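This part of the workshop introduces the protein records we will be handling. A record pairs a protein's sequence with a compact description of its fold. As an example, a complete record with its sequence and its structure tokens follows.

_____
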Amino acid sequence: MGGQLDVSAYYAAPKDEATKDWVMQQTMFRVKDPKRSLDFYTKVLGMQLITVGDFPQWGFTVFFVGYPPEKDLGPVPENDADKFAYCMKVPGCVELTWNHGSEAEDADRVYNTGNADSTGSKDGEAVKGGFGHIGITVPDVYAACQRFKDMGAEFTKSPNAGGMKGLAFVKDPDGYLVEVLPLGKGFPFPTQDTDCCGVSLSGGEGYADNSKKK
């Protein structure tokens, strides 16, 4: 494990008492159109809108979405003043940042996703970015991906495509990648003979959705 790097010392390192209550709370994406992004994250991925912060004096609004652990935290408060404090207890939120006016730009996508695309590039060449994706875990990857397909989501890798079977990548409306992984399962992941895009276990080179090839 760990390739050429010996990571045993990191596994063995004691928990730092000074950071024991710290939480990885959010990842921020800039989005062109907040409605289409909220529709994707709440309706397709099934996240919940937790709180909204509007800052007209600076020209932006932020929307925090995620999967609140209601068994631990209870439901999202109805009082707007309490929603932000509640949100800061929810791990793994996505902060969708809308810079006012971006929705009026002509291009369908206006932000570079960090995944070697050319959005925002002055010369039109792909940018070698460092960011990759966010990820969600689901009880059944194949059932979740069928849901995503039925709701019009765009795949860059269906569960049976590519070398790693049983996981998928879908794009959000701005092109950011969302990895879909099986909840609580080790590798190799559970598989089915055919996935939602019609790709068989024996097919699917690379990360392309081969069901779209003619």
Remarks:
- Confidence is low (pLDDT under 50) at residues 209-214.
- The beta strands are 26-31, 48-55, 60-66, 93-99, 133-138, 154-157, 168-171, 177-182.
